[in-house]
Amino acid sequence: MSNLDILLFDDQLSEEELIIKSSAKDYCQSELMPRILEANRKEVFDKSVYKEMGKLGFLGAPIKGYGCAGTNYVSYGLIAREIERVDSSYRSAFSVQTSLAMHAIYKFGSEEQKDFYLPQMAEGSLIGCFGLTESDAGSDPASMKTNAIEKTMVIF
């Protein structure tokens, strides 16, 4: 496979974006890639990857504060791209943690919720999730009929 960049993609990136891209590529190729084949054979998902990504500042990367890196969305996309090159399931986990779970808390959560959840999620010690399904609507949010009722659990 050639490393020829006919679109001069890297020339369009800032120095910080190039560093983040390189860091993500190094991690994905040296740490993530060697474990993927075995994990797929055993049908396991290695949750320790969350903490590894957290240490590198990948989780919640575009969020400012709360233990997050505060990068731009180009950098977030570069991280996602490098993870996707190795394995789509780990890229999905990264995206759900950052874009669906953490971003929802950052955008709509109270300051108390942000202070409590986001630092733990950024370091990978707390794993967020996103559920969207309904018997009559599947995963079509416009057709959902379910309503949330506030009780003792946190609902975002």
Q: How would you explain this protein's 3D organization?
A:
There is one protein chain. This protein is an all-alpha fold. The chain has a single domain (13-127), classed as Acyl-CoA dehydrogenase/oxidase, N-terminal domain (Butyryl-Coa Dehydrogenase, subunit A, domain 1), CATH 1.10.540. It has five helices and two strands, in the order ααββααα. The chain has helices at residues 15-42, 48-55, 73-86, 88-108, 111-123; strands at 64-65, 68-69. β1 (64-65) and β2 (68-69) form a beta hairpin. The protein is globular and about 55 Å long. The termini are far apart.
Write the topology of this structure:
Layout: H1 15-42, H2 48-55, E1 64-65, E2 68-69, H3 73-86, H4 88-108, H5 111-123
Antiparallel strand pairs: 1-2
Helix pairs in contact: 1-3, 3-4, 4-5
Which strands sit side by side, in order, in the main sheet? Answer: 1-2
* First-residue to last-residue Cα separation: 44 Å
Report the average pLDDT across residues: 91
Count the E strands: 2
CATH class: Mainly Alpha
The gross shape turns out to be globular
Rg: 17 Å
Percent of residues in beta strands: under 5%
The main sheet comes to: 2 strands, antiparallel
